[in-house]
């Protein structure tokens, strides 16, 4: 086995790059929605409640989308937000005025309820009609989502969303097709499972962090100063 | 604040894409080393020990590099490898013949020892000279790394490595410079902290998964069948 | 505030100890069921499948019951079992012949489905009637539980269970009542929320580990040799 | 194997209970120190910094001691403290005035530096002599510990500590010795590894939660209202 060349690494990476490069057009096509998405997050720094705290941002995602959520959560903390990830040890209760951000390719009702332990979004956003102390009333909880289609359950229940379709629509050249055939490789599997969605979501959210850094009047050093400081190696910048 | 346009989201995303697109040249420039990197992982499926188990692959990383490690770990599991991530609840002992893969931009001695709880690589790979039962002898533990420079501690102690330099060498156009000035934005901060390294590492490793899928004679459906199956929404493929 | 004595620490600890000491009678009263509980776990080391692996044990629990699950999971690993905890990074699919152990005080349908991401036990144990490839058929998955009542959903769906009722039935002395009154303390809150259940569950399961250690012909050193070995301080025993 | 009785479950549980019951005398013998331990935690709710936040409490522990840390961290959150656990996704920087609580049986320098990623306590508490912006100055960080001996590195560097020695000093009766012999069981292994320490630490800290609940003028319902509220089953109290 160790004599094998790198059979399709180049084509797989090339196809993954082609997929994530589409985020530039997503940004243009969904400009207003992404602006709204950003604004909802930014308002978490402005709202002041009785206890003097900012609104809290909760991140939800399963599997590798959950890792994307953690990537973004850490940067939100660096930006100075109060942020938690469902499924971690420490998750406070959601209060009215808070924000829940879901990352889910399928965006199906099941996927969403998985992420937040089987509570439907309808229940989270239920009306004032049951104002007793024992019932949650979240009429002002904002739902954000990064999902894989415009018509999924999650998209239709979100206050703002970023949709990454990550379709597999690649056409192989004749030369490539022969190469795939000789390897017994299905050319439709150059990017597998949710990879295109997850990696695109990460890149868009990482750019959004820089956007918000500027919006909030912060610079890179401010974010570094909000990073865990116990025994972190100093980062030297060029 | 909510009247703000998306000030620099487009330029930040564009610059992040420019950074990750450099992975194509990394692949060409480090072809032999990446081949060796892959081969060491593949051998974990071949080695058979007395107990009939495959070699185990341990992933190590701190912070967001740790999330990259988790992304790759999950796919290694899908490929059928025995894999663990340092810092999780369940981490078995490392045995001779196992593999440790580090993901660290700085690759400094401190960063590495952080990732695996202050054991130096010298100790992990120490010689046979102390063969008593109470001492670990790991002469055959293979060290793999994804790191940010060719001359860091981690790179110099690895059996195979992938180096992602992710330098910030962008030149702004005159128009862009004026835009940055008007926003009070430092153009060197379009991609911040370790983002360029982390996102590039994720993309390369995700492509490597597809490469190994083919090497092992597997297809996408095989990987899906190795995914957690309790209440996962069915993924329909186009 | 710093001049306060330790108001009720002694009574709270005393009451918590009284609660956990009841585990001795649980052990007597549920002897046969606990024996069955143990036997189901032990069989995971005996069953051999086509791929030569043992059966896998999956642990499920939410909140602090989830930490009890992690405590036990680590010891099961030390005993040599293949074990995973739902919610961690790496969770393989459940296969027929595997074991799922739930830890939940309420044991309600909601609590259980939370723990394993909204799959009902009925679905996990569904019959052979739908043998297509896309459906899970788990007729031989064993369900174990540690729960807080004999008549909860979880108990009624388990192949073996340990029930820890942890009732709050303390009677205060006259002297204690006066002390509580002077502090404005509700004597019914000496042990709060699920604490009595969780701590009792931990103690019973920790004893069960030693029982199984002996059943499997292992000693303490064998378990230590299955513990993470990277930079662990040597434990000296008296 | 399935015909085996429960060989030593009763004696193991009995011995574990004997160990944890010793916490009552720990409480008496270390009254003043535990009072100081509590007071340092309580002050985290009083201190106000420039940004209007309370002091933050950081929990550190490895392996099963790390789970004890998570148990206590969750309750501290329920009590209204700002609390984080090293090793989780979200860990902010430590600032002057914050508190770090270590849970470690050995309390050795290595164990401590493992828990917080190789920073020595000397460095955390280093003096004002290097007041540049890039250096951490933590002269007012308080170190708390729950450890296994009075003379370990951790104990000697703590502002307040709870010491749980959890010695194995059991004497077997003649009848028990015969039973152990017939089973080939080492009576010194009725409680293994760190179990006695970990379970005792959990019980003491759980009682301390109730003590602080009263100190802060809170009741059980207040803590429940600080628990994650998304899809938690309602807890009915007797």
From TrEMBL, chains A, B, C, D:
GO terms for biological process: carbohydrate derivative metabolic process. It comes from the Archaea. GO terms for molecular function: carbohydrate derivative binding; isomerase activity. InterPro entries: PHI/rmpB, SIS_dom, SIS_dom_sf. The keyword Coiled coil does not apply. Pfam families: SIS. Transmembrane segments: none annotated. Keywords: Isomerase. Residues 45-218 form the SIS domain. This is 3-hexulose-6-phosphate isomerase Phi2.
């Amino acid at each position: 086995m160790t004599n094998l060349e790198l059979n399709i690494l180049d084509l797989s990476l090339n196809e993954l790059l082609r997929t994530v490069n589409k985020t530039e057009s997503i940004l243009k096509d969904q400009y207003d929605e992404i602006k709204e998405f950003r604004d909802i997050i930014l308002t978490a720094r402005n709202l002041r409640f009785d206890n003097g705290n900012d609104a809290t941002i909760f991140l939800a995602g399963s599997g590798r989308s959950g890792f994307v959520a953690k990537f973004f959560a850490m940067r939100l903390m660096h930006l100075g937000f109060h942020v938690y990830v469902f499924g971690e040890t420490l998750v406070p209760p959601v209060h009215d005025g808070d924000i829940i951000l879901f990352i889910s390719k399928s965006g199906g009702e099941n996927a969403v309820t998985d992420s937040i332990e089987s509570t439907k979004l309808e229940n989270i956003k239920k009306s004032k009609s049951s104002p007793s102390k024992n019932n949650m009333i979240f009429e002002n909880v904002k739902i954000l989502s990064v999902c894989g289609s415009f018509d999924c359950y999650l998209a239709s229940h979100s206050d703002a969303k970023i949709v990454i379709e990550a379709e597999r629509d690649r056409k192989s050249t004749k030369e490539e097709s022969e190469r795939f055939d000789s390897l017994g490789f299905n050319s439709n599997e150059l990017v597998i499972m949710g990879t295109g969605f997850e990696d695109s979501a990460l890149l868009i959210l990482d750019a959004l962090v820089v956007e918000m850094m500027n919006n909030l009047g912060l610079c890179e050093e401010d974010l570094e100063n909000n990073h865990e400081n116990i025994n972190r190696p100093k980062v030297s910048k060029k």
